[in-house]
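hey m, so remember when u said the tokens were messed up on ur end? i reran from scratch. heres the input so u can diff it against urs
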Amino acid sequence: MNVINWGVKRIEKLNKINMITKEKMDNYLISIGGLKNGFFPDREPITDSHYFEVGKGWYQLIKDLIDDLIKLGWNKEICQVKEKFGGLRFYINGGTTEIFNRISEAEELSFNTCEVTGNKGELRTDIGWYRTLSDEVYNEFKNR
């Protein structure tokens, strides 16, 4: 299955499930023992989603990504998770080609997933900041 077909299937799945809340994401991070902070290895593991500089609409995307990366042998060292130019950026210290390919897939998928709601979205460039938003959220930004 190519990345685009995979992305369409993932969006369909995201739209059928309940969006992950901050509390659920925090519980998930605790359940996997947290993520090592690649920039500050002497600090406690990241077990709170406030370290993620993204909207909660991408939490399911990130959770699925982390699950897959762990299955691929990732060491759970993370440097940064943020939005940049409307897309997800997931930075780690190192990994295999498969790990980086899976991160690229999630980053591509983010351009079709509303960062606010987790529903189908598209990149919007005319609201002062590049954001991937659903039509509903986009219209709210436009009408401010």
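this time it looks ok to me. The chain has one domain: 3-142. if urs says something different then somethings off w ur setup not the seq
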